[in-house]
Amino acid sequence: MRTSLRTLACAVMVGLLTASGPPSAAGAPPVYPAPDPDPFYAAPADLASKEPGAVLAVRTQEPLPYFPTATVSLVKFRSTDSQGRPIAATTTILTPKDHRPGAPLLSYQHIINGLGTQCAVSRALYAYDPNLLYRAVPLLNTMLLRGWSIALPDHLGPNAAYGAARLGGQITLDGIRAATGIAELGLAGSPAALLGYSGGGMATGWAAALAPQYAPELRLVGAAQGGVPMNITTMARALGFAPHPMFGLAMAAALGLEREYPDRLPISGQLNDTGLAVRDAMANGCTVELIAAGAMHSASDLASTVSLIDDPRAWEVGDANSLELFEPVPAIPIFEWHTPIDPLIPVDAVDRTNQRYCRAGTPVQSELYPSPDHLATAVMGFPSAVAWLDARFRGEPAPSNC
Which Gene Ontology molecular-function terms are recorded (predicted)? Predict the structure, then answer.
């Protein structure tokens, strides 16, 4: 698939702020996902009394045939949403069978396209369905063979807030906190690193930038992030509103952000009757359902009002999830890769963010791949990213081409 959610997402956000059409029922509230039927995912009554990263429950999962050298654990932990409120989040830990205590831990933030709880990585691993196909198996197996444990956070959170990048960074960091606090996993004192591309790269980049303030105690050694949309506000203002076959992914991102910021980005209240029908059709969907529900629609034929266009609170949502605009910088080395002709993300925002990190003294190794395809660039850069991470785990000084 050639389209990344968090790149098309912004076009929809702007379109729904600016387009007009037949009116809808006034003040339609946000639509949230159906609760996960597995009680393991439910938040405990005493959640607010727990610290971020506190382990709430651990469950040994069935073995996965495509990770034959690993055991699988599902961990529920306390994290924080975009408003600072406590939430219960989950991460899946793959532990190599020859694991030694204190060996490296990699948190891999996979791309998650979805508004339903079943789209989360912990669910997709056990759903043999092309709608939830897990695409990183070969890459992760090479890491397991190196003796690394791997954390796979459900970084969209319990409300499947597709597009909420800062939330993803907080969940990622709290997932590492939780994993290193479980004695049975043998990760106490383990060095940890971060990896992700595109939407997963946004969660990775936010985790790296937030860590000095949000989780300063973690022993992070580096972050490898590729194809990251660094400024979704800029993207939103630049993209157009023509019908698009992948419009559903973009609309899903707008709806996911509404779930995190219902008072500041009330997208549902801007939709006409057609827009509400499309929204409801994708409210619990994953990739295939999102694309099907939104195919060849545009923001202009789904919106009914222009009232948000002059509301600074709506634009602040984009700013609040744009790494380029987040003043703190990572305290760990960064490996960054992208294509300079990326059709989906504005690469000048990537360049400016790298330069700002460099000026602040963060070592940045940036690699360019001349591919015209956003997701193909992920595959091209992964070998270098993993080699770079391996060197960080070995304690080698981080290179920089600042």
Answer: triacylglycerol lipase activity
Q: Which residues of 265-274 are buried (b: 16+ CB within 10 A; e: fewer)?
A: bbbbbbbbeb
pTM for the structure as a whole: 0.93
Kindly report the CATH number assigned to the domain that includes residue 205. 3.40.50.1820
Do 54 and 177 belong to one domain?
yes
Gap between the Cα atoms of 159 and 79, Å rounded: 13
Of 278, 296, 319, the one marking the end of a domain is: 319
pLDDT in tens, 193-242: 999 999 999 999 999 999 999 999 999 999 999 999 999 877 766 655 67
What are the distances in angstroms from CA 193 to CA 220, 221, 394? 5, 6, 12
> In this structure, what CATH number is given to the domain that contains residue 246?
1.10.260
* 54 and 183 housed in the same domain: yes
* Residue that has been written with the tokens 């159906």 in this structure: 34
Tens-digit pLDDT profile for residues 287-315: 889 999 999 888 788 888 655 555 677 77
Domain boundary among 269, 289, 319: 319
Domain count, the chain: 2
Q: What residues make up the domain containing 17? A: 5-32+240-319
List, for residues 94-125, the tens digit of each pLDDT value: 999 999 999 999 999 999 989 999 999 999 99
Structure tokens at 348: 């000048």
Residue 40 lies in a domain: no
| C-alpha 202 chain-centroid distance | 6
CA angle in degrees (0–180, nearest 5) for 12-14-16: 65
Whether residue 224 is found in the same domain as residue 345: yes
